[in-house]
Amino acid sequence: MTTPQWVKDLKPAAPQGSELLEQERSKSKINVDTLSAFLHSREGLARKRRVLKILENDKVFNKEQNYFAGRIDRFETALARAKKLRQLVIRHGWDNDDRMVANELISEPGPYGLHESMFLITLRDQGSPEQHERFLKQAEKYKYIGCYAQTELGHGSNVRGLETTATWNTEDQTFTIDSPTLTASKWWIGSLGRTANHAVVMAQLIINGKSHGPHPFVVQIRDMSTHEPLKDIHIGDIGPKFGYNTMDNGFLLFNKVKVPHISMLARHSRVDPKTNKYVKPSSPSLVFGTLTWVRSTIVMQAGGVLARGVTIATRYCAFQDRDAPSDAGGENQVLNYTTVQIRLLPLLATTFALHFTGKAMMALYGASQKKMSQDVGKVGGPERGAGPEETHSGSDLLADLHATSCGLKSLASYTAVEGLEVCRRACGGHGYSSFSGIGSWYADYLPTATWEGDNYMLTQQVARYLLKSARSVLKGNEPSNDTTAILANFLARQDQGAAFDVLGNDADIVAAYAWRSAFLTFEALKHRDEQKKAWNDLLVDFYRLSRAHSQYMVVKNFYETLQSPPSDLDPETLGVLHKLFRLYALHTLESEASEFYTSSAVTVRQIQLARTSAVMKLLQDIRPHAVRLVDSWDFPDWQLDSSLGRYDGKVYEDMFHRASELNPLNRITVDPYPDSPTLFKKNEAGALKPKL
Amino acid sequence: MTTPQWVKDLKPAAPQGSELLEQERSKSKINVDTLSAFLHSREGLARKRRVLKILENDKVFNKEQNYFAGRIDRFETALARAKKLRQLVIRHGWDNDDRMVANELISEPGPYGLHESMFLITLRDQGSPEQHERFLKQAEKYKYIGCYAQTELGHGSNVRGLETTATWNTEDQTFTIDSPTLTASKWWIGSLGRTANHAVVMAQLIINGKSHGPHPFVVQIRDMSTHEPLKDIHIGDIGPKFGYNTMDNGFLLFNKVKVPHISMLARHSRVDPKTNKYVKPSSPSLVFGTLTWVRSTIVMQAGGVLARGVTIATRYCAFQDRDAPSDAGGENQVLNYTTVQIRLLPLLATTFALHFTGKAMMALYGASQKKMSQDVGKVGGPERGAGPEETHSGSDLLADLHATSCGLKSLASYTAVEGLEVCRRACGGHGYSSFSGIGSWYADYLPTATWEGDNYMLTQQVARYLLKSARSVLKGNEPSNDTTAILANFLARQDQGAAFDVLGNDADIVAAYAWRSAFLTFEALKHRDEQKKAWNDLLVDFYRLSRAHSQYMVVKNFYETLQSPPSDLDPETLGVLHKLFRLYALHTLESEASEFYTSSAVTVRQIQLARTSAVMKLLQDIRPHAVRLVDSWDFPDWQLDSSLGRYDGKVYEDMFHRASELNPLNRITVDPYPDSPTLFKKNEAGALKPKL
After folding, report:
1. Residue A207 belongs to what H/E stretch?
2. Which of A386, B84, B124, B143 is most buried, by CB atoms within 10 Å?
3. Which domains, and CATH codes, for chain B?
């Protein structure tokens, strides 16, 4: 649609968004540059700039039609982008970090996603040298494009329940891959629907009528030249989803398809073709830690995921409320309303809390891997969702990390999901427009709350670990890690009671969180061991316990990060970070008030004071720094793709441009009358539409 | 895509969904038929069946491609449906209730939506007899198809801030409609983007340089034969949204467009063309109650909106958890997990709570209108969003209803929004598929939390009213309605303290909610009147106060509804409804624990018992009735359009059918290799796509 000149001449009414954001930035002395470097490192920032420059100059990555395009167009465009990205990797010699940064900037799941993660990783880690030669080399050259086919229509998290079978045929030394039921259909498999020509298929290995549990098989599924499914294989895309629609999640069924002996990935276990016997994996502990790593990265990313929404909402809420009563005296920026502050500023604090916690987790993971490899020999890279995971190591550090990663994955992804919706709604009516940039981001992120362990299911693992730790402490064992230390401390002090000065002392805040977590642990233990309650009857308590313990971890990590800040961080910025710590901790404390007072960690009076005075004061103190704080997250406009979150504040101009000039719906003219003989006068192509 | 025969022959692994749901239904004696009639009335149920039969046999209403279609197709189909529905109304002589039921069954916002509500209503209520003749007649015949253009790009809820002007021209007795800035552009206007040829435009009336505030003008905006925008008018669709994409929300700008004197709707105020003077509205109280009515309907609908999600999730969660450890002994239906029960069953209780509350509100509204019309003469019908609303009536009943409708609209729509997401997630991975039917329903419902009063803004009105009531009670005035009665009761008893037996006595639960609401009211009053805190500093307290008071209203209405149940309701069913009441009330109580104990309405011990014992026991008691309870909401499968929520439990078959046979993405074959010369081998039409 052409925008007439008289419309192009119009300006938004004063004050302009650009002026408002300029004012905001002039009111705070936060050093955005230093804080950005603290969050992302100088090297990370430089990498982002370098990659961004290449992407934004390539028209295949042009985002203008992203919000308008339908499913098929979005998928086709995403595939074109994936191909181009692969070409850029080769042309510019990008390393893995460069590619990850590019994906973050593009900000949509791509059809090569599972090829480049699970398919390659599984071939690498679970393939024998012969299989590396046969499969991995082709996959690394993108001749074989693969996916990781585990989940089935009837089965999600537990691989032991999978129905797909791989039966060893003694007579010709092959496997028959089969889907005996409809629920055995592979389902949700990323990159499978339209893209992959190979799959790693998790199937129950059956030898001589005996099942040996799920094992990975490399299976060709499409013809290498026509790309049509092979005979007796039924494949397709599973259809549209709430988000993630640039990805072709697929289904896959086998009608007794024979594959050769080499198809079964044989690094850990295999079938001996001479004896027709199953050879067990030599060291089950090798697969330890894979999901722990994945969960740690989810915690790490959750801060940044949420920060996108907070950036958009904070910048937009720095706008004036043009609907405010005129007696507001010019001071009517939306961000000045306490009902807006109470929603956005604790979330702003949360972005930092999660980021620092994720960083600490990754560091801990690195340390534990080092220790592990000393303990049990070389450990493979992370295997996303690859096989059952149990705690085999004797190391308390590792068990602690495993439990922590479960609880924090649940808390962090839940917090990011909920927070993004809060940000979207804080933008008022315009938050509902796709141009806000929050809705699609939220929708694409949502599955994180389900995959790599459902957020509810995971909390049982945390509780199980805490109960075990509590039993150990009750037996009088010496504390061997932080968890047993806080449990022992609680036991030692519980008769004296707690008197934490949460309003006056930051270390006491951390102690109060530890106290509450320990209290809930011993309560749960009492229900379980003394009152002999059924496990299922305690799931709700366990969920709360996991949440409490994870919040303790976040508060503790945030606190500790600020104890040793980088030397170039100025006192003003560090001071604001301290306030963000207190806001996160006290706001969470008062939101979860009843657990805190029930445990006697704090008094009812302290909670009331936290609510009515401490938190409100912190909101007021942090308010002037809000825009600079989100600036320090350093999201380029190109990445955010948001009218409301633009760095320059040209919100209305951008919304209008997209609606008036980019919107393809405005290219059709309809016949609106109910009794018209044809339904539509013309569509995009100028053709008449048939009556439905 | 063709599904091969060997796939068609596959069945889901046992047990079949149909068997599981049959078992569920056999385990409860709830009388679904009687309970449905209690919820919807026999007449309402018969109406639904009659309308459904017609719709589901008409191919324009076929829903098969709804989840797959892109924006343009969805809009065009929705328009075709709107036209057809209009034809059906005429052919079958449907009344307004029939049409509303049809819209509920179709379940998508349609392009005639604003024509059939705000446009017609505004013409009718605000037009003079001459204008009825000139505009309304044409509109009722769908010759004029209209919209209601109030909101602007820079202005939402407050009409006083609108920038569009209508300047009276003395010389030729016309008005000039103008958009002086970009932010003056009308925005979000339903049915405007592509459909309407007329608009009611709210614009600042200016006579002789003096502004008289916003007034409604009827303006032709598109040519009656070409349907192109008229000269100096720029119109378009505002682009895609998080939901509501079957509706063409539009923008509209005027470049000094002249309209005749008759354009200004003149029933209440007008410009006298002889004297060029503004003639004030004779009775401002006429517009009272319009938004109150709209808000009451939102409360009324919220129960049913949520019930769709609860129906889908409850039926699907009656399935077995195929991932459960095998030692679960067959008792592994997802709905047996307490972590699932604690999410779904309180929401199931909430659907009834909101429904009964909405019914009570509508009855109260009817009574108040009757009283009003006795007080001030004839009152017009509801005017959706039409103009400012103030409390002009001296009747305490009416003021109470106004405040209640604000608070309940906020609580009910928030609860439905949040609850739908909980239901979607309770469905696990498959909840993310569009075929769950929850995602799109949630996305379409979301704006309800913003329109007709932002859910946060509204709570100020509740607080203002409660403070006023408290001041009146403190002065010693006799209680004149329920609100002043509970405030007076609190004052009289506060020194004795409360001792509500919330665990043993249902009336005491209601009293505890009243107590907490009164306590928070006097706390807020102290902050405001004694401590002289600024209004803005109290917004968070006000939000909490409004929420508390609204929860009291819901609990009270649910309780009272069950005190006089319909005579044909059997004791078993009534007994379960009582349990649902207790579940809603006690679960909410323990979720909001800190306000209850701070107010001394209950003790810490009572809250602990509510949490760990009463609520858990209620979950257990209600569990066997869950499926029959959702059945009683009586959603036809055609309406739900959900694989997971099917009445017959054929979940896997339906998901597979949609993915394998209906999914258009499966009609394209791509070239997946990164260095291929062409990007795609063929698309739907068999054509090569150009390189992006």
Report:
1. strand A198-207
2. A386
3. 1-16+651-692 (no CATH), 142-282 (2.40.110.10), 290-630 (1.20.140.10)
